[in-house]
From TrEMBL:
Residues 59-113 form the HTH lacI-type domain. PANTHER family: LACI-FAMILY TRANSCRIPTION REGULATOR, LACI-RELATED TRANSCRIPTIONAL REPRESSOR. InterPro entries: HTH_LacI, Lambda_DNA-bd_dom_sf, Peripla_BP_I, SBP_2_dom. It holds the Pfam family Peripla_BP_4. PROSITE patterns: HTH_LACI_1, HTH_LACI_2. This is Transcriptional regulator, LacI family. Keywords: DNA-binding, Transcription, Transcription regulation.
Amino acid sequence: MQSKRKRGLFFIAFVCGHKDTTIFVITKIVIYLCRKYLDYYCVRAQKAMNKPMNTPERIRIKDIARMADVSVGTVDRVIHGRSGVSEASRKRVEEILEKLNYQPNMYASALASNKKYAFACLLPQHDTGEYWTEVEGGIHEALTTYSDFNITVKLTYYDPYDYRSFARAARSIADMKPDGVLFAPTAPQYTAPFTDELEKLNIPYIYIDSNIKEAPALSFFGQNSHQSGYFAARMLMLLAGEDAQEIVIFRKINEGIVGSNQQERREIGFREYMSEHHPACRIWELNLHAKRDSEDAQMLDDFFRAHPTVKNGITFNSKAYIIGEYLQKHRRTDFNLMGYDLLKRNVDCLKEGSIFFLIAQQPTLQGFDGIKALCDHLILKKEIARENFMPIDLLTKENIEYYYNK
């Protein structure tokens, strides 16, 4: 290495054409290195001067306790923001922490504590392969990823078309007194008693799929449903053409209940766009029975018989395949259908052409990030963003293969 440096210096001297150039270059290098070392040791000296006397190089909790004249337990409670510390002791410890610029290794502390964390998740009832299966997949993936923290998750389900079912399931979770809760809220007036109880018990909770701003959670993971519906209307009307006179909204509904806040807010956003940009376009509605799938075909027959000129439609739930498969069976290729979510049956319809657009919202990531946020908040003591919006991904048969496989 030294011989290479010498050769380099002599080469510079040769190029410059002056025999004193080598000495000049070496002098410059020596001065540069001296300055670098001087800066390094000055910084070290400054840090040392700022530390209290007799402070060890590696700061431990017991060192802080000794300097503050308190117990190790008191320092631990201050660092982790727990109660049970007098104001005088807290202030003394905080002053020392600030002076030392102490940064606790929360990850190592969590592993060393060996504490167990029990989380509860409340999701709508669903069949295998439906939208919420993907959310569950993300939850289980997070369990594996954060297994070092000794976390467990208990899944509980409610009937999305029965508010009493949500209330019963919520009550059972509150009785469990878990460390944190991840759930898909129902209508605000039925969600509020649950969130009130969780706050009373000082249990952090996170929303997925839909957000209730009147009762803000620690965090929310999901789409901006209103914006998603507004965007869907714009895309559907680009597909239908500016002169489209009528469209249809397909719903799955039971006794007046749509089944999720997301669907209702998507429809509000959709209608807002239509009112602003296509006020003359007639919007029909077809309410399919949520719990009587056997009647779907007959209801679709009756609708299309009564409205033969309707060529465009949308559904805001994840079961666009119901209409898509109906269109395939009846060889209808003149109808533009738009729906939500990458269920396999939806994707099959997209590839076959009976669904033209699908909007995806990454349910696996919602489940994973919901559990991750609880770990970050409770175990690693990190700040959590209040709202975390999923992208509004528009998919067609031309781009679905890459996205779906990913």
